Every structure is written in structure tokens, then in C-alpha cells.
Amino acid sequence: MSWQLDRRRFLRGAAGPLLPLPFLNLMERKASGAAADGPPIRFMTLFKPNGVHPPSWSINGGTEFDFRMSPLMQPFAKHKQDLLILDNMGDFGFSSHANSTRRFLSGHHRNTKSASVDQLIADRIGKGTPHRSLELTTEGLFPNQIGCSYISYDSNGDPIPRESDPQLIFDRLFRSPMRNQDKRREMRSVLDRVSEDAKSLSRTAGVEDKQTLDQYLSVVRSTEKRIENIAASSNDIPKATMERPLAPANMNEQVESMLDLIALALWTDSTRCVTYMLGNSNSRMIFDFLGIKEQHHYLSHFFRNFSRQNLDALLKISLWHMEKFDYLLTRMKSYKDHEGSLLDHSIVLYGSGMGHSDNHTATRIPIILAGQGGGLVKTGRYVRYAENQQLGRLHLALLKLFDADQDSFAYSNNPLPGLNGSNFTPYNEQPFESWVKKGDGSITVQGRLRLSDNLDEARIFLIDIEGQPSIRIDVAFRDFHDFNLAYHCGTAVKITGTFTEKDGQPVITKVQELNSLFGKKPGSANG
Amino acid sequence: MSYRLPLLLIIFGWVTLCTPESAISSDQDKATSGKTTQAESDPQQVYQTTIQPLLRKHCFQCHGQGDEVHGEVNFRELKTEQQIEAAFELWSSVLEVIDSGAMPPETQPRLTSAEIEQFKSWYQKDLVDTIQPLPGILRPRRLSAHEYRQTLRSLFGFELEVAIAEAEQTVVEKSLVMKLLPVDPPGPSGFKNDTSANPLTTNVWDQYSFLIDDALEQWFDPRQREHIEVVAGPISAEHMTPEQAEKVLRWMLRHAYRRSPKAETIATSLAAIAGKRAAELESALRIELKSVLMSPPFIYRSLLATINAPNAKNDTVPPRPYGRVDDHELAERLSYFLWGDMPDDRLMQLADRGALHDPDVYASEVARMLEDAKSRNLAYNFGVEWFSLNEISKVSNNPPVSHALRQQPIDFLHHLFTEGQPLLELIDSNVTFVNPHTAKYYPRDRKRMTAYRKQRGIEVEAVSNQRLELTNTPERGGLLTMPGVLAMNKGPVIRGTWMLERIMGEHLPDPPANVGQVKPNQRGENLSFRERFELHRSNETCAICHNKIDPLGFAMQAYDASGNYKPAGSSNANTNKKRNKKKPDDPTNNQTASSPAARLDTSGRLSSGETFDDYDGLKQILITSRRRTVIENIVKRTLSYALARELNIHDVPTVDTITSELNQHGNLERQEGSYHDLINLVVNSLPFTHAEPQHTKND
After folding, report:
1. Residue B212 pLDDT > 70
2. Hey, is the C-beta of A13 within 8 angstroms of any chain B C-beta?
3. What is the CATH number of domain A435-516?
4. Between A and B, how many residue pairs show a Cβ–Cβ distance under 8 A?
5. Beta-strand relationship, A273-277 and A381-389
């Protein structure tokens, strides 16, 4: 296989200027496998903490190939053809933060004695690379509920330590004497110098000094030996002039640096399997760089801590998560890999272990697959299953894609159908009619309610009407609260209210009555 | 209140403890009184003919033969003079148990009074009287991870940190050094700065290499030259000039080695960059700097130290086996003790001039160092390791709470050490340090705290401590009743053991493995935990240690496992009578008079005979009749940390002198010395200021 490089591509160092990537020797690089083997398939996971705010996240209505992106997915419209958006994932009632974190890659919170799916995939694809897998995160450990800190688990079901420092990862990948000729040369001269020093000291030393110096020299000699061994059998990254990420000024820079490194690590085949947590579940992170002063977990309980500002802040954070996903995909598309891009030969799993971030339901968990994985996955689709699906079925299906010899995972025995375009039973919405009836000063509308696509005006709702423009609902907080508009998002409702005309379109300004066509009354379920 | 040792006393301490003259005169005293080791028979032979038969008769059965050796004591292994000397602490406890009749156990024949006398006289004559104070051999010691971290920071001017933005309520090691280097195990002294049993390995080597690369990377970073320019001067061009490179290299050699290196060392180093320019020069300089920072004199302390030749004033004095260490070594000892860090420029300059061993200069340097912010090291390392305060981190898994519980004793110890508080304030003090997470333990004093208001949307956060004078909280005050300290030691046995070891300075062997659990109340029984526990440990071998442990531990029983103060119900005669009685309608006071919990028994009797009703009574004993024991332990721990080694029999005279000095010391209300006095006595002591030369190959 040969490395291909677009000379105009740049690697951006965090907080720094755009830096050229003099990585040209890679172009002549030959990997160990024959070209006929095809490009390696990579598996990458991005974890989004604290569930979602369903009105802004969920896609409602539409079909497999014809659907409209939800407000939060708007940054993603450009990637639509590379995405497989899964819906109705998760079949569990309420779930703690720790349990939902385990569920994300282990399928079920009680699946605590097995490796998580990323590790099982790493067993398949990671053996020949310098790093079998990387487990990365943004935050430190959250000891209050330690399970919130991990998504990757080893074959005993024990958590795998994660790393959050981009510089350490960079050095481990590209600067270790293990993979870098220059570093080895430098280490050799240091070893020569210090052993001279130690020997000259030892000539005049007493017994106690001598013991110490002998111990020191034996470490020096064994390091020399290791260096020689590595030099003899090395698979070097040819030139080590890549820019090391700078210390980040804020979390955003840190995350972007890490995403840069992940793409680079996958592209240079330093590893084929990476998991990355955008935060701990239950994350108390304060997104000060977005101008937010409250903690993420507090805001994620958007119903019990409801205020206009809190919801706006939460949506900013959720959008930031999506932007980072976008950033990763854009970067992966920018790397040419054989006859396509790096993303074409990767499967990226984005999502959470929890659906509704306030009431912690583990249904309609956000899950998106990106990249075709060299043809393993059929993208450009929105797949909403008829029934709520165990997350373990998805993991089992992924394992099958990577040829793992496994018949069950996390209490699931049937792989989830439909990832590669195979048949599945889609969700069928109960049919209803949509219409508008204008009377004297009052209006009655029936149709599916949704949140505005523009998250800057998240208090605006719309009712979609077949064949007509959608009707805007722009009401005072009182109505929003009393009728619990957000609760009905995605479902069919009949609303009666007063309205004004704006640009020739009716805008509902006060709600008088709201009826759900099929749903429960608000308040009958938690949250 | 601040208290300083009068200058006279410092000089007195200096003369008695440190000068070679005093050591000689004491040797001579011994020589003239005919008690030197050479004068009579060989000590090993004396032991074999007088003591070993005694041990064989009474002790070997349990402590020296068969498959099982009881209590980690094996007399059979003690044969040579060195082994006998090394076991000096064992002998003093042997004396204690045979004297009090605790050993041999009741089922075995007792020692006759003649036999006891024989042992006593051997102990006094062959051990105590003949101990020659010796400072210990000058040994190289690898920097501990903490010392390495501090030293790098002082050299480069910045801390090596992981490059991550901080997130709330998570635990992360920010220091790159502490993150990458393996955790230091405590050495034989019990302190981590004693790295004698913690060798250099290839793993540590790789991490050193990584850390030095990282530090040099930042130092040479053209975007942030402020740190390297402190040394090199302003760098105007893209690269530094050859003159600047030479300056940097010379500076690094002197500072990394913590003394001026030999001319040939400097010459060899300079040769590595000679004739080079621009990028090539900087690259050669970096490799050379890395070599300096990876070389033995940097990573080991004392490797280049010298011992001043004893300067004999007259011929009658026998050659001394030790001498004063050079001033740079003294500076290094002082700064690693008080700061956990390399000497600063001022100390190095004083050492260059040979001025540091001048008593006035030395004393004023010690005072200056204690005032410096770096003296927090004493509380953060010495204090934390002495009292095992890191255990508090396990008490709560909520980081702001465990931070508050752990920070309280640390701030308190810092206050004791650096503000020169009397020694026993450790146990008995009316000053504490609290924040909103710990304030609930001080309900009647907390209203004087500055109010704290949490911001909207913040769930919990770490808050710094405020100093609080305790006027209405007599059940707190002092280290032992701090909630974190109480909560990290759960149960009376662990609390008692901890107190015995960390406060009274006793070393206990591990309990036998087959003791089983304390039995629950059987049908019809209504025994308190203490009563059931006493049945459980009534076995006489258990009693040896438990007679010491239990009174201490059960005295703390009015404090529950989380450190809350919950004295027993008022109806019981054995309860704390004086204070903080719960009102009868207090909902937490749901114990009936007859329930075991209500019959909380906090009284006890120490093996030395004193009795008390509750912890307050015990505290009074600790600060009055048993204060010498407590002070001696404080001295031993401090000396051992300062020397970064385990104490041995030749340190006993030093410990005794310092202890007596502090114990009798007097113009304070409490009549004991302060932590400033202690520190001054320690840094002027013989083992701190002197060293014995190393063995040579011919020895």
C-alpha cells in the first residue's frame, strides 16, 4: 500500500498558526501488507456526554432516504451522504449516568465481565499497528461516580485508563525513540556522554558511590541495547518535523488538537482503533469559552432547571459537540487514503448511552455512524427501527462487519439489520391528516410539531403541514410552559390559538388549546 | 503567636550537638571512664555468653524456632555486633515487656529478678552507655519524584504540566513529573524522600528522558523565551550567540549539580558546543544540556559532596571517623529538608563563600527559608507522609469534599511548622482551618466564618480554607479530632494503632492472620462493641499489643466513622459529661439508655498506668505526663525526614539531647519548645551537619 498526500493539506496546531506538514516521505512509504489487501479499515468512537435535548436532536418523520436533519444536525448537512443516522436505539427505561456510560460500548450496563466492542474490534484490526488502540478523553476522572469516566473496558470488563493530554499522545505516537530515528540518534549521544561522566566519577568513588554508579551504568547499558534492537527492526515514521500541539488555552483547542491527532494517527496507520470521550458522563465541565458559567450536568437537566438562558446554554453545548464531530469528519475527509479519503475507509461511531438528558431514559439514544468503512456500511440514510433496539445488537452487527467470530454480545443474539443496506423493519408512524383552519382571529392547526431549525430562536416552534408552508408558533413563556410545547415535539398535535399575519403567513401568538393526537398527556411521564 | 529560639540557645545547641570538639570530648569521657568498646571484651562475645542463654531459655520457643515466629521477632537471627546494634529499638521494647511482666506470657515461667537485672545492666552498659554518636555515611540518594519535580521547576522557571484544560470535579494529575514517574514507595524511614530502596530503572530512565525533552522544548521555544532569557540575556536573533550558549551551559552545570563543577567537567561540556553556530549550536547545546540533566550528579543528591578533613587541634585526640560536610552539601540538605527543592541562588552564594556554616548566617537562613512560600513542602510532604494524610482522599469520592477534609490538616500543619507553634499544639490547639465543606463539624464556631455563596449552576466546588479560632468547640482542636483524620481511620483498632505509631512512635507488628471476626451478640446478649471486642481479644498474645492500642482507639469512640461528634446518651454514667449533650428531643439521639450504643465507654487505662474517662482526658495525659514520649516521636520523625534515612543506634544520643532540650524548654505557657526550636536543633545536629566517609575497597 502506498501513502498518498495532498501537498496543500495543512495540519493546524492548536492556538498556533497554520503549520505546513512536511510529511512528504510518507508518499513513498510501503506498508507491510500487499496492495491487494486494500486499505485498512479503522474504527473510531466519539462519545457525547449527558444525553440530548430531544426536541433539538430528534429527526421526526421522513423516510430512509428522504428526511430533514434536526436542528442540532444542521452543521452536518454537508456530510449527509457519509452518515447513517440510527433511531429508536436503546430499549431501557431509566438509566443512571454510570450505567449509560457502560452501555454505550458494552451494550448493557450489566455486561461488566466482557471487553467493550471497540476492544473486540481492536483485537481484529489493531494487532499489526504500533498502537493496538488509543483510549482518549478530555476530562480527568470523576470519582463521584467512577463509571462515568470510562467507555472502553478490557477483556475482564475492567476500565482502561484514558489519556487526555494531546502533547503526550503526540510524543507517544511520533516522537518516541521507538518510532523515530532522530530521537534514537539523540539518545545515543546522551548515553555516550553520561556514561563517560559516570565512569569518571566512579574512578574516585567510595564503595557506596560505586554501588549507585554501577546501578546507573547498568540502566544506561540496557537502554543502549534497547535502542540497538529497535533500530534493527524499526517501522519508522520517516520525518519527525510534524508540529507538536501547543498547550491549549481552553477545552475547545484541546479537543481540536486531539481530533487532529486522531485523524493523523489513523491516517499514518499508527493505530486503527480509537475511542474518544468529549467529556465524562455527568460532566461538570464549564464551557467558559462559549460564554457559559453553569456546569454542563446542571444544564443538561433542562426541564428541572428550566430557564430560557439555561436552555440556550445547553443547546450551545450540544451544538459544540456536533461541531467537533463535524471537525473530525472534515479532517478525515481531507486525508487521501488510496482511492478515497480516510473517512471512506473508517467507521466512526458517534453517540451517547442515554437519550433524554433530563429524565435519563435509555431510549432514542443518539447514535450516528459516519464513513462507509470501505463499503461495510451503507451511508446517506436515516434508519428508524420499528421497535426500540438493544444497543448490544448494534455492537454485535459491528463485530460481524469486522469478521469477529461472535454469536452474541451483551445479551443480544441477533445483529442489528440494515447497517449495510440489508432489510429492516422501519418505524411506521400512525397516519394522520394535517390541515389549517382559520377563523375570526383564531386558528386551528393539525400537524407535526417541531422546534425551529434556528437554535438562536429555540423558543419558536413550527407545525408542518403537508403541501403547505409550516405554521410558526411564537408565544409567550406562559404558553410555552403551560402547554409544554417542547414535550410534544415530533408528534402530531392539534393546536387552537390566536394569530397574526406576518409576510402573508399566519403566526400563532397565543395557544388556547392543545390536543395530542396519539400521545400521552404531559406530566404522565417523568420529565 | 510567634516564638523564636533565643540565639544563645542556638549556639548552645550548636556546640553540644555538632562541633567535632564536643563529639571528641564525649569520646574521651568514655575512654577515661573505661567504657569504650575495645577496653573490655568483644560485645558480640558478651552478648553470646550473658544474653543469648537468657533468650534461649525464655524466648526462643516463640521467637526463634519452629515454623512460626511470633510477632515478627526472631532472636535467633541476632548474632553479629551489627545485628545486635541494628535491633536497638527491639531491645528497648524487650526491656519494657519483661519489666512490666507482659512477657513471657502467663503460661510460661517468668524471668527471675536476677535475670531481669542482668538484661537491664547489659542494655545499659553495652548499648546505651557505649553508643557513640555518629552522623552516618555520606550516601548518594536519588531525588524523589517530588524533589525532582521541584528541582526542575526551580531550574527552568516553570512547572511541567500536562497540556490540558482543567475540568470541574474531576481528578487529574496536573504535574507531568508526578504523572509520569512511578509513585515513590516510602523508604525504610517511612518517608518518600528516603529513596535508598528505590533504584533507578530503565522505565524511570525513559521518563526522565521524556521530561527533560519536554522541559528543554519549552525552554527553547522561540515563542516564549522569557525563561531562557533569564539565563542567556536577551536573544535578539533567531538563534542564540555562541557566547550565550556558553553562558547557558555554564549556568546549567552549576545549578543542576548544585555546586560549581570541576574545571575539566566544564571543559568537556563546552567542547560539545565549540565552533558551532545558529541552529547547529542550539541543537548541540540541547543535547549537552540533556546530558547534564541525565547525568548522575543531577539525579542523585550528595554525589559530589565532600567531607572536610577533621582538623585536629592536638595530638592526643584520636582520629575522628567523621567530619563536617562541605557548605554546598549543607545547603542542599537544608533546602531539600525545608523546601523539598534545590538550594536557591542565595544559599549557593553563601556556600560558595564558605559562609553558610557560620552559626549566625546559618540561623538567619533557616528563618528566611521558613518564611519562604516553598516551606509549604514541610506540611505537603513531611506532614502528609508522617500522618498518612493521603488516606483522606479515599474518605469521600466527591473531590471538593475530600479536598476540604485533606486540606484542613495540611493547612494546620503548615501553621504549626512555619509559625513556630509549640510542639504539642499538634494535639491540643484552638486554631483550625475550615471551609464550607468542613464547617458543619464546628457548629458553634462557624458563624464567625466569612460567608460563602455558591454560584447558580455550580453543583459543588472546592473552596479554600479560612483560619478559625475555636472558642465553643472543645471536642475539636488539634490534629487528632479533625474530621478527615477521624474518617480515614475507621474503628477503634485502626485509630488506636495509628495513634500509637504516628503520635507515640511505637512500631507494632502485624496481627496474626488467623484471628477471625468479632462475634456478633448471641441470643440474649446485649453487649456493646467494646465488650464483645474485649472478649474477642482476651487471648494473651493479642493483649500484648491491644492493651496499648485499645485504650487509645476506644477513647475516640465518641467520634463516628465519618468524624461526627456523637457523645453517648446522657443517661449513662460512662459518657462524656461535660459538653455538647444532645437535647432529649434531638432526633439523632434515638439511643435508649440500655442499648449498647448508649453505653458508649470511652474510658481507658494506658500501659503506663494513667486512667482517663474520655478523649479529653487522654489528651491531657498526652500533653502532660506522656509528653516526653510524644515529643520524642516528633523529634525522631523530623530528624529522620531531614536526614532522608532511617535512624540508627548512633542517632539515639542526638534524639535524646534534642528531646530533652525541647521538653524542658521553658518560657512558654506550655513549657515546651516550638517547631522553630525543633527545626533549628535538627539542622544543627551532628548527623545533619556531618558525615562519615564512605568505605573504601580495602575495608
Report:
1. yes
2. no
3. 2.40.50.140
4. 160
5. unpaired
